[in-house]
Amino acid sequence: MRIIAGKAKGRRLKTVPGMKVRPTTDRVRESLFQIIGPYFEGGSVLDLFAGSGSLGLETLSRGAERAVFVDHSPASVETVRKNLQVAGFADRAEVYRRDARAALRILARRKLSFRYIFLDPPYRETFLPELLTYISEHGLLEPRGVLMAEHGSASRLQPRYNHLSRVRELVYGQTVIHLYQREDPGGAKDAGGSLSGEL
């Protein structure tokens, strides 16, 4: 696994020991970032089920300013820290060992919001709808921001969660990615950053 593009292009990333973490493949990451980027001018990113941190690291490499990485696994947290050192981004990141729900509550209390949010939990988990609703209700996604929710093909997500509206659905074999953006209270997507024109 490697960083595909940007400042740290080509840097090899460590993977989390064991078989419990399923990293997003290079091919899927490359396709995803061609849609949401491919490069960024600042902004912050939340990688909530960080694993090895590959999604957040790719975003930093392509121009995001800061990142918050969260995972409940000690091995994942240690791997993220090592990968940040390898990529040269340790001074631009916060890394926490937390449950996803607890992490979102803490971030909401800090009144943080993110331009890019990645949700890639284990496919067996069923709490993505709960997390999407919480993120929407607490304004954790910026206007014009993008939220990516990844899951297995056996699961389903709704086109809307509160003020989050799905603008793209991408299918890569058994992997399904939904891209959401925030709507204003009147029901229209925030102007200037919608991906829906690419459907």
TrEMBL record:
One Pfam family, short name: Cons_hypoth95
GO MF annotations, alphabetized: methyltransferase activity
Species this protein is from: Kroppenstedtia eburnea
SUPFAM superfamilies reported in the protein's UniProt record: S-adenosyl-L-methionine-dependent methyltransferases
Keyword RNA-binding assigned: no
GO biological process, one term: rRNA methylation
Protein name listed in UniProt: 16S rRNA (Guanine(966)-N(2))-methyltransferase RsmD
Keyword annotations: Methyltransferase, Transferase
